[in-house]
Design a protein that fits this description.
Blueprint (H helix, E strand, L loop, with lengths): L22 H13 L29 E4 L5 E5 L4 E6 L2 E12 L2 E6 L4 E8 L2 E4 L2 E5 L2
Antiparallel strand pairs: 1-2, 1-8, 2-3, 3-4, 4-5, 5-6, 6-7, 7-8
Length: 137
């Protein structure tokens, strides 16, 4: 039996090609750039919508109260002042924000900027975020 020794591997220079940014990276860069835009705090008052321009919350809608998923993991309380408070599992007030009801449609604006919506399919059933909520009586 004869052993053959192999020559050691040599590092060879390779051509480095520039990396083209993907769509995902372009989107990420745009989101980062947007986060540095000035806030509306110093905006021209003439360009800021007046309270009359925003739809007013109907405090008399029939959907005020506690709404829960069947497993009670998510508890969603619609308050009469147009605010909501959502608990998830053992985390109380996981999400808070404002909401508006127009007919059977509900729009949410979380205090962190997240938005969502839902539909009341009947007096005791809310479809929101791919989940079904039932009114707690």
């Amino acid at each position: 039996m004869k052993l053959r020794l192999q020559a050691p591997l040599r590092a060879t220079p390779t051509t480095v090609r520039p990396v083209r940014p993907s769509r995902r990276m372009n989107l990420l860069a745009a989101l980062v750039a947007i986060s540095f835009l000035p806030s509306r705090a110093g905006a021209d008052p003439a360009m800021t919508p007046t309270p009359a321009a925003r739809p007013q919350h109907d405090q008399n809608h029939p959907y005020v109260g506690m709404w829960v998923t069947p497993d009670r993991h998510i508890r969603h309380e619609l308050l009469p002042n147009g605010r909501y408070d959502e608990a998830r599992g053992t985390r109380q007030s996981a999400y808070r924000g404002r909401y508006e009801v127009r007919g059977t449609h509900i729009d949410y604006w979380d205090d962190t900027g997240f938005t969502a919506d839902g539909i009341f399919v009947d007096a005791d059933t809310l479809h929101h975020g791919g989940m079904v909520f039932r009114r707690v009586k």
